[in-house]
Amino acid sequence: MTAFALDDPLERGPGLPRPGRLLRTAADSIPPSGLVLLGIFSVQLGAGFAKELFTALPPSAVVFLRIAMGAVVMAVVARPRLRGLSRRDWAVALGFGVTLAVMNLTFYEALARLPLGIAVAIEFLGPLGVAVAASRRRLDLLWVALAGAGVLLLAPWGQSETVSWIGIGFAMVAGACWAAYILLSAAVGGRFPGATGLSFAMIVSAVLVAPVGITTGGVDLLQPELLLIGLGVGLLSSVIPYSLELQALRRMPKQVFGILMSMEPAAAALIGVLVLSELLHAQQWAAIICIVAASLGSTRMRRG
Fold this sequence. Notes:
The protein has helices at 7-11, 19-28, 32-52, 59-77, 87-111, 116-123, 125-133, 140-154, 165-191, 196-217, 224-249, 254-261, 264-276, 282-301.
């Protein structure tokens, strides 16, 4: 995931309170590994609350709520500057925004058809593929085989009430978009200062998702309680975890960060049990463990 700072924009201006500095001081009192774990659980808790909204809104409408709320917050925290951008800058930023839109739409469609832990585990194949593709070690073939075994264990070969091929397909598309997101975020980070590139991409994503989200959600999107939950989902899924990750990356090696992030599918499965009462079978837990182990192995063996 791409991290961004919340403290710099909040600290500017003479005579004004500086909540960003207070937040940074509070974050510094927490070990960096704790910040990463808090960020992971924040993301999955946001996904759990988003899935609860599916009883009131279709997934595409929930995606619009999440992205729109996140874009508003990001525009305030890190207002994008569009002057002086080259055509290449525009192309990279727009591509990043399109990737964000498709990634979120397909993931939420997968979430509507799969338990949270399974959806995240399959989606996690995207960043795992990026990590393996960047390496030339033969040992990485083992991690590919292990991840493949996990997918085979998740596949609904027989009658399954919790897993569908359509859901798996959506999760795989989301994983491919996550891989593209990782590559594009590096390009955007090199062309835009701070979090302005991500802020611009989220605005583009919100504009792209708006037609389908508004069409499917209709007037229900204006209900105050749904707007409030949507804001909470946006904060939990984007603003809070990205901020925590940035603070952690300042104080820990990237390899250690990657190892901790490999625990995300397991955290998603745990949130699914605690928040959504999604009890998984032993075979499904084994599949998630395979994918987590593959991610851990590829990250652990990767040189600096």
